[in-house]
User: Fold these one by one.
Assistant:
Number 1:
Amino acid sequence: MKKRGVSGLIQRQAVSGSSYASFTMDEIRRYGRHLIMPEVGLEGQRRLKDASVLVVGVGGLGAPVSLYLAAAGVGKIGLLDFDEVDETNLQRQVIFSTPDVGRKKVEVARERLLKLNPHIEVMAYETLINSENALDIIKDYDVVVDATDNFPTRYLLNDACVFLKKPLIYGSIFRFDGQVSVFYAGKGPCYRCLYPEPPPPGLVPSCAEGGVLGVLPGIIGSLQANEALKLILGIGEPLIGRLLLVDALSITFRELRINRDKGCPVCSENPTIKELIDYEQFCGTRVSGEALDAARNSITPLELKRLLEAGEEIQLIDVREPVEWEICRITGAKLIPLSQLTSRLHEIDQTRKVIVYCHSGQRSALAVKLLRELGLTNTYNLAGGIDAYAEQIDPTIPRY
C-alpha cells in the first residue's frame, strides 16, 4: 500500500459517523475501479463524495481538472469563469465543442459535467472573482484549484486561501512548459513565498501571444486534479513545498524545493497583509499615469484605416514573431520582431508617422514606450493590434 503521507490535511466533519452519504447500486458500479483499490476503497470514495472543490477558470487547465474531478465522484464542484467560448479555445479546452462557441463557459461546462456524472452537484459562478466576493465563495469549499491565466487573480486566490486555511492547487502553462504545486499555509509555503512580486505588466506574454501546445493543459490539468484527489483521500505525498516543472518537448519532469519565506507578508508569523487588497493595483494592471500615456500614444484601427485611405505617409512596423507574420499581416507592414527592435532602429523612418502593431497591442505598446524613450517620438501603437484591425476593419485578415 502506498504511504499515506497527507492523512488529516483536510479536516472535515464527514470523516466518520452517519454523515457519510450512502451509495446507490449505480454509483457502486460507476466507481468500481476506485473501490477495489486499497488506497481508496469505500471510505475513500465517501470522502470524495463528501468533498467540495472550487475550480477558478474554466479554460485550458480548468477543463481537464473539472472533468476528472467529476468522473472521480467529487460531490460538489464549483466552476468560476466570466468568459464565453471562443473558437480559439477549441484547440485545447476539451470540455467545449464547436456548437458551444458564444455560450458562457460555466454554463456549458456545468452541463457537460452533469452529463458525465449525474450523481454530483455542480455550482456555476458566472462572475469575476475579486476582493469583495472571494472569501464568501471560497469558504464553502475544501480545496481550491487555480486554473487562471493572470497574476492579479493568482495573488488574490493565494491570499484568500491563506486567510481561510484552504489548500490551493496551482498550475500554469506556456508554449511547451508547465508548472504545478500545492500552496497550503501552515503546512508549507504560499504562492508569495515563490513569487514575492509580480512581473512588470506586459513582460510575461500570455498564451494568446506566445501560444500553447494543445495537449499541455491536459497534462498539467490532470496533475492538478491528481493533487486534489490525493488531498481529499489523504494519500501519497502532495506537492507542498515542491514546484514541479514539466517540459513537454523533452517530456522531462524537474522538481524544485520551495521554502517558506519567514518574511512573507501574508503567511509568515508576523504578516503585514491581513486582508484582501487591490490586486489589479498590486500587479500594475489598473490604469495608471503610465497607462494613460500609452493610451495617448495609440491610434484605433479605424484611425489607421483613415490614414491608409487618405494616402498619408506612414510606416507600419510589425513587432510579432516570424511565425505570426506568416499567418497574417497588414499590407505594407515591415517585420521587426520586438527582440530585434533596438538592433534595427536604423530601419525605422522618423520622417513619417510610425505605427507599431502586434497581435493584441501589448507587445507593441512596450515597443512604442521603448522607442519614445530613445527619442523616436513620432511613434504610435495600434490599439488592440492586428486582431482588432481584422475584427473591426478587414475581415479578410485571418484571426488566431
Number 2:
Amino acid sequence: MTSEIDAAAAALARGQVVGIPTDTVYGVAVDPGHPGATDRIFALKQRPTDTELPVLVLDADQAMSLCPADRLQPYVRPLMDTLWPGALTIVVPRRPGLEAALGGDGTTIGIRAPDNDVVRELCRRVGPLAVTSANLHGQPPLTTAAEVREAFTGDVAVVVDGGVCEGAPSTVVDCTGEQPVLIREGRIPWGEITALV
C-alpha cells in the first residue's frame, strides 16, 4: 500500500483526482490549493457547484489553518479534541483569503479529521484534501477500490485499495452559531455531541 500512497501523493501534487479509502466510504480527493483541481471533482461527480466540498485534515492543528481562530465558537475546539479522528464533520467560518474553489458561498467550510491512516498520511504529505464520496451525485456510495476504478475509468489517476469501506456517514454539525445545529446525524450520535457543548 505504501507505493499506492506514494503514487496518490504525487498525483495530488499534480492536481489530479485520486480515489481513497476513508473510515466511512471510498472518496475522491484533490488538493484544493491546486488551480482547477476541485473543478475536476465537480465535473467527475456531476455535482452542482453550490454544494460545498468538505475538507479532510490530519488533525485539529491542520484544521486551524482553514478557519479563523478568533471567529470560532468556544465549543468547537473541544469537539475537535474529543471526537477527532472520527466521523464528525464540523461547519465553521472559512478563513478569509483561503484560495480554494470548494463550491458553496465561500463563507464557511466543512472540516473532518478521519480515523483512517491512508487519508491522514496523505494529509500529512500534501495538506488538507477536498474529498467527497466516490459516486455520481445522488447515487449510492462505492465501497471497494475496484468499484471506484470501474466507475471512473480514466478520470481518477490512482485508487488506493483500503479494503471494503462501508461505514455510516459522518455526522455533520453547523458550528457557526452560539449553539451547534445538526445538519445530518451519522455515526456519532447527536446526544454525544451536545453533551460536550
